[in-house]
Amino acid sequence: AVGNYTLNVTTIPDKNHIAVVANAKITVNKAYSTVSLTDIVFDYGAAGNSSVTFTGATGVTARVIDHDEIIVSVEGNVIAVSGLDAGEYTLAVVTIPDAGYEAAEATANITVNKINSTISVEDIVIDYGAAAVIPVRADGITSINASITEYPDAVIDYSDDYTIIVSGLNGGSYTLNVVGVPDKNHYASQDSATITVNKVNSTSFFE
């Protein structure tokens, strides 16, 4: 076992000698436990797992470096990580050593991939003189940009709830292009819709 010991040695003399005693100190140092683990890659919004193996220890503790707010769970030989934004991180693991061992540490890379944002708009039909009010369904974006292919000078306004308001269009058919500006965890996305502007009856006045 680990510790300090004394080795006593006594001679067995022949008939012409007297027995003598000598001693020496023995120090048994702790050995280091060992630990290794796999890198983690997963998509934003999901969870990632690392497989960990260790010797000379009863288990391990784990944390994400510089992100102590992230909950990391350890179940046997599996470490689970979730709740991270897209990006690169480092997972640090330390053994819980047995009595005869020192703790050991290892690290692994965590890669959290961005995912696609979503955006959706639907076709709309209006009469000339009215505004086209087009709701936008979106996720993972911070803002939207819209344009009219056939009429770049169209008047386009936005409301706080991602509704697009297009006015000033003549009778005809137009293509509305909508691009979502993504947040840090998503890729950009886009969609398009057709705006149909119906002609209206003209009016005449006679005195």
Structural account:
- It is a single chain.
- This protein has 207 residues and is mainly β.
- The protein has no helices and 23 strands.
- It has strands at residues 3-10, 21-28, 31-32, 34-37, 40-43, 47-55, 57-64, 72-75, 78-82, 87-97, 101-102, 105-113, 115-116, 118-120, 124-127, 132-135, 137-139, 141-148, 155-158, 163-167, 172-182, 186-187, 189-198.
- The strands form eight sheets. A four-stranded antiparallel beta sheet has the order 4-6-9-8, with no helix packed on it. The chain has a four-stranded mixed beta sheet with strand order 5-12-10-7, with no helix packed on it. A four-stranded mixed beta sheet has the order 15-23-21-18, with no helix packed on it.
- It is rod-shaped and about 145 Å long.
- The relative contact order is 0.16.
SSE inventory with pairings:
Blueprint: E1 3-10, E2 21-28, E3 31-32, E4 34-37, E5 40-43, E6 47-55, E7 57-64, E8 72-75, E9 78-82, E10 87-97, E11 101-102, E12 105-113, E13 115-116, E14 118-120, E15 124-127, E16 132-135, E17 137-139, E18 141-148, E19 155-158, E20 163-167, E21 172-182, E22 186-187, E23 189-198
Parallel strand pairs: 3-11, 5-12, 13-22, 15-23
Antiparallel strand pairs: 1-2, 4-6, 6-9, 7-10, 8-9, 10-12, 14-17, 16-20, 18-21, 19-20, 21-23
